[in-house]
Amino acid sequence: AMLWRTSPAATELEQVALDWLRQMLGLPGPLFGVINDTASAGTLYALAAAREALSDLQIRQHGMSGRPEVPRLRYYASQEAHSAVDKAGIVLGVGLEGLRKIPVDEAYRMDVAALEQAIKEDLAAGWRPFAVVATVGTTSTTSVDPVPAIADLCERYGLWLHIDASYAGSAALLPEYRHILAGCERADSFIVNPHKWLFTPLDCSVFFTRKPDIVKATFSLVLEILRTDEEAPNLMDYGISLGRRFRALKLWMIMRYFGQEGLQARLREHIRLGQLLAHWIDEAPDFERLAPTPFSTVCFRAHPRGLDDEAQLTTLNERLLQRINSAGHYFLSHTRLRGRYSLRAAIGNLRTTEETIRGLWQELQEGLRVELARLS
Ligand SMILES: *Cc1c(COP(=O)(O)O)cnc(C)c1O
């Protein structure tokens, strides 16, 4: 699947499967979609397109260095955004300093007043703001940035709005969770990863854009041997790869096999299990939750009564994590939240059941008893 002509089925099925996905997510059409290997690639493409949208600068043609007429470029994301957002700045020549990290509120969502303040300061200091990345489902705590208010600012200041919904976007398949995508219909580009939480094997990240012409203007460069006269899109024009895997096939297969209701039932169950674990943690005197649980990922730690030394709590929880993971029945991850070491249980596998979560909770409680004894 390089051009439409080299495998029409691959290109056509990608359009069909992504339009089904768009409908399931409740996003208004028409919306152009293309599948990349990862969200990291898609984020880079989104920000490359945002840079291309600064049409007066003609960076695609002339580059950025050695041009005194090109101001320093700035884009914005919250402190909780994924490192893919930083990496895009590295590759695009905007630099890590070109990304300004915006503080978050008590629930780890981007502080929109701080965003506007930052944009104003940067304008006054001679930067050229060009994009904002808002996250729907941040990596650590799965928080949802206030997209409608961010979209307002993007419109006011003429900035490209990119939405990173890699993990949590899938939850919008549920009518009761559709609100998490409020404002996303105004975004210039949007990413959701079926390989995160839609049961599709790795290497399936969906990139939607309302501005396919700009994305194409960013990447299209057609060698004579690739020149064809079809009306159909050539997906090589929307990124850097020519040859592409037939990624739509597995996504189409997943949608066909489970059906919309089947996918919804599984997502709903994962969220129920996440909430159940969160509830047990809240009820337990020796554990505490360290962040809200909007979906099925729970951030928590052991915090036994009377043990309030942060260094000791970190050691205790590090050991607990190691104990659980080396036992091999479960695999927990960790993060740091306002300096506190936090365990993370991310529930999203097709085979995870309530029994799995009960077993995990049991192991956590037993593990805590053993590790507490070691500590004292
Ligand atoms: C996982 C994740 C990414 C990176 O996804 P890849 O497809 O592995 O590159 C980016 N952003 C968020 C919010 C994520 O959860």
Structure overview:
- There is one protein chain.
- This protein is an alpha/beta fold.
- The protein folds into 2 domains: 8-246, Aspartate Aminotransferase, domain 2, CATH 3.40.640.10; 260-375, Aspartate Aminotransferase, domain 1 (Alpha-Beta Complex).
- It has 11 helices and 11 strands.
- The strands form 2 sheets. Strands 1-7-6-5-4-2-3 form a 7-stranded mixed beta sheet, sandwiched between helices. A 4-stranded antiparallel beta sheet has the order 8-9-11-10.
- Helix 2 (39-52) packs across helix 8 (212-219) and helix 10 (310-327) crosses helix 11.
- The longest helix is centred in the last third of the chain and has 37 residues, at 247-283.
- The N and C termini lie far apart (61 Å).
- The model has no long low-confidence stretch (mean pLDDT 96).
- The structure holds pyridoxal-5'-phosphate (PLP).
| Gross geometry | globular
Oligomer: single chain
> Can you list the strand order of the major beta sheet?
1-7-6-5-4-2-3
CATH topology of the largest domain: Aspartate Aminotransferase, domain 2
Count helical runs: 11
What features would you highlight for this structure?
376 residues, alpha/beta, Aspartate Aminotransferase, domain 2, Aspartate Aminotransferase, domain 1, 7-stranded mixed beta sheet, 4-stranded antiparallel beta sheet, binds pyridoxal-5'-phosphate
